[in-house]
User: Fold this.
Amino acid sequence: YLAPRSGATGLQKLVISAADLHEGEAKFFEYGGSSAVLIKTKGGEMVALSAVCTHLGCIVQWVKEQQHFLCPCHGGQFAIDGTVLAGPPPKPLARIPVTVTGGNITIG
Ligand code: FES
Assistant:
């Protein structure tokens, strides 16, 4: 889990250092009281998503080898942009805005 740089809890915005995340990797963190994930794509783009499966609410896992998400509960699969690839989830994972300024990534 990523720790917010500012000490306050309950903030919607989270700022982390871009150097903390490598291409193809995902980091899970708390966002707005639930689980979320930040991915750096192999092209270097930052994507933040809710990690809560849209089927029945399990927390999805990042499958680094395949660059997609897998839900451990019923096998739902989501692409790196949150779209549904397979399984029962009815909707994409919710996107969270990401801004990259200099070396910092601001989520939310
Ligand atoms: Fe994720 Fe059912 S809760 S596939």
